[in-house]
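fwd from M.: "can u put these together and see what the complex looks like"

so here's what she sent:
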Amino acid sequence: MAVATTPRGYIERPRPSGLADVIEVILDKGLVIDAFVRVSLIGIEILTIDARIVIASVDTYLRFAEAVNRLDIVQDTDSQGLPELMETITEGGAKSKVKGLAEGAKEAVTGDDDDDDDKSQSRSRSRSSSRSRSRSGSSKSS
Amino acid sequence: MTDLAGKVYVYGVIAASGDTAPQVEGIEAAPVRLVGRPELGALVSDLGTDALSAPKAVRAHWRVLEEASQDATIVPVRFGMVMESEDAVVARLLEANQETLSALLHDVAGKVQLTVKGKYDEDRMLREIVQSTPAVAELNERLRTVSVEAAYYDRIRLGELVAAEVDHRRVADTVAAVARLEPLAEAVREQEVREPNAAYDLAFLVRREAIEDFTKAVGELDRDVGDRIELSYIGPAPVYSFAEANLSEGSPAWA
C-alpha cells in the first residue's frame, strides 16, 4: 500500500464498510415509515440515544481543558510544529481515555469489546429523538 | 412492546433486476422475500417473536441491505420499521407512496454511498490552538497553577474556547473536503459528527462508474490534509444517507 517515495501511503481504495462504520446511519437515516402506517419500532431507543454524543457539552469542554492542560508546551517560543515535540506526547492519554459514547453504543451492537470502562448507559442523554421514535421509549431492550 | 409476532419487518424498497430476493437471512434467520412488483418492491421478512435482540436485529438489517444492494438498486428503510402484514406493505407503503419511491429509486439507480470521515490528530490540533489563540494560552497557563477543584468554571471556559476553535477548523476543513470531492459525486450529505476530535463525516452519492475517479480525489484530499486529519474512506455501501423521505399513507410528501 505504501508508496516508497511518500512518508505514508495515501488512500488508494475504499475500505468495505463494517457494521461499526454504518451503525449510525442505519439507526438514523433511511426511509421512515409514518407511525400511522407502521406497527411499531423495535425497542432500541437506548442504542440510538447513546449514539448521540453531544459534542457541545460540559463533558467535552472539561475534556478539552484537561487535554490542553496536559500538553507540554513551551510557551515563550514559536517552535510550533516541531515533529519531535509532537512525539513527546504519547497517544495513550486523551484519546483512549475519553472514547466517545458513540463508540460505546457501537460496541453494544457490533460486539467489539476492546475497552469497556466507558460503558455509556448511565450517561445517556435523553434527548428525545426526532419524530418517529417517540413511541417506544419505555421499552428498553435486552 | 407491541406484539411483533406475525408482523412483517421491512428492510428496504427495491427495484430488483430480476424477481428474486437476495439469498440472505433476515432477522431471526427468517428468509428475506420480495413483495410488490419487481420495479417497485420491498424486501421483507416475517417476525416470529416479540422478544427480538436489538444487536442481532441491527446486524441482520445491515447484512440484508449490503447483500441486496450488490446487484440491485435499493433504498434503505431506517432500522426498526415493522408493518402489520405483507398486504399492508404493498398497499400502504408501496402503492400509497409509489410516486415518491419511484423517484427515489430513479435518483439512486446505479449509485452507491461512499463515506469520508476525518479525524483530527488531537494533540497536534490542540497544540496549534494553544499557540495560535492567546486567550486559550493565557487561561491554560493560569489554570496550571490552580487546583482542579478551585477552577471548575474556568476549566469549562477554557474548554469552551478550545471547542470554538475546533469548530472553526471543522467548518474550514469540511468546506475544503467538500470542494475537493463534490464535483465527482452526484450529491453530498454532511452528517453530524459525534466525537470531539472528529473533523467531518461526509456521505457522497457516487455513480458506480465514477468510483475510481472519486477514489483518486479522496487520495488527493488525503495528501492535502496530511497528518493533521486522519481519513477513513468507507464503501461502497447502500445509499443510507440519501434515502430521505417520510412515508405516510396517501401523502407522498418529501420529508
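replying to her w this: Chain B touches chain A through 91 residues (CB under 8 Å).
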